[in-house]
Every structure is written in structure tokens, then in C-alpha cells.
Write a structure and sequence with these properties.
Radius of gyration: 20 Å
Distance between the termini: 78 Å
Largest sheet: 3 strands, mixed
Shape: elongated
Structural class: mainly alpha
Helix content: 55-70%
Number of helices: 7
Number of strands: 3
Strand content: 5-15%
Low-confidence stretches: 1-10
Length: about 170
């Protein structure tokens, strides 16, 4: 009987690792609000999990170099079967690429939100941006409103075309 319990406890051992990825303040708040916590379990069923698992694949083609350092850390739990297949380590370049990819995802979602609300509710662009940031508790200290607004104005026409929205007068 003792041997059976020992075998069960060995097979039920959890060798999950936690990968702490430095991210900018607005990316941290976006992920925390989007996924409900300051960490996720990496699976290919979520966009963020898929990105992390792809970064583990010992990619040598990431040439991203940034001098930015981030105060916040987003944790990703990686189950044993995933890191045995994909690897364990996310280096600095991969972590920076993760932050930039999630920032792009954040901006894309923000800009689509603003365009859809303008088309369906005639909401002003600047109010749409402010409402979106409020939902994610993102402040001027996290990312400047003007930075997002200027980026939105540069991309607005392409977003409108991709969403197949009619031009508003």
C-alpha cells in the first residue's frame, strides 16, 4: 500500500516553472485586466500563451535590442510538457519582443475599439481612447495619451479600411 501511494505522489508531482517577463506599465495593466490576474498558464489556446511558447523555441532570429528597462513583471507558468518540448529560457531580447508584441496587440485592440465606437455610436476619437484606457486602469503615468492619439491618427485610415467601415463626415 505504501508503494502505491509513493508512486501516485511521484506521478502527480508538478514541475511547472514560472517565467517572469519584464513589461512596461501599460502592457502589465492591459494583460492583468485582460486575463484577470498578473500571471497566466501558457497554452496555445490564448494569444499570449502562444506568444510565450513561441519565444521558448530557441529562436535565434530575434534581433530586437532596446535599452528600456521595465518595472513591472508579468508571470507565465509553463507546464513541464511544454518546456521539455519548447525550452525553458526566455532571454532579454525575447522578453523585449514579448513586450513589443503585446503593446502592438493592445494598440490594435484600442484603435479598433475607437473606430467601431465612432462608426456605431458616433463617439469622438479622443473620448473612445480615454474610455478604453479607463477600462484597463491605464493612466498618463503608464503611457501618454498624446502618444496613443498620434499613433491612432497615423493608422486610422488603414484601420477603417480593414474593418470595412464607411467614412464618417
Amino acid at each position: 500500500m505504501y508503494l502505491l501511494n509513493l508512486v501516485n505522489s511521484i506521478t502527480m508531482a508538478d514541475f511547472t516553472i514560472t517565467q517572469n517577463i519584464p513589461v512596461s506599465n501599460h502592457v502589465y495593466k492591459y494583460l492583468k485586466n485582460r486575463y484577470g490576474d498578473d500571471h497566466i498558464i501558457a497554452t496555445r489556446e490564448t494569444v499570449v500563451g502562444g506568444i510565450v511558447l513561441s519565444l521558448l523555441n530557441r529562436n535565434n532570429d530575434i534581433r530586437h535590442v532596446s535599452k528600456k528597462s521595465y518595472d513591472k513583471v508579468f508571470s507565465v507558468l509553463i507546464k513541464e510538457e511544454k518546456y521539455l518540448r519548447n525550452g525553458v529560457h526566455i532571454d532579454t531580447r525575447s522578453a523585449q519582443a514579448f513586450n513589443d508584441t503585446i503593446d502592438k496587440m493592445f494598440r490594435e485592440e484600442l484603435f479598433c475599439h475607437v473606430m467601431i465606437n465612432k462608426f456605431s455610436n458616433n463617439e469622438q476619437f479622443n473620448q473612445g481612447i480615454r474610455n478604453f484606457l479607463k477600462v484597463y486602469d491605464i493612466t498618463e503615468d503608464d503611457i501618454k495619451y498624446e502618444t496613443l492619439y498620434r499613433d491612432f491618427k497615423r493608422k486610422k485610415d488603414n484601420i477603417q479600411i480593414s474593418l470595412n467601415l464607411e467614412k464618417q463626415p
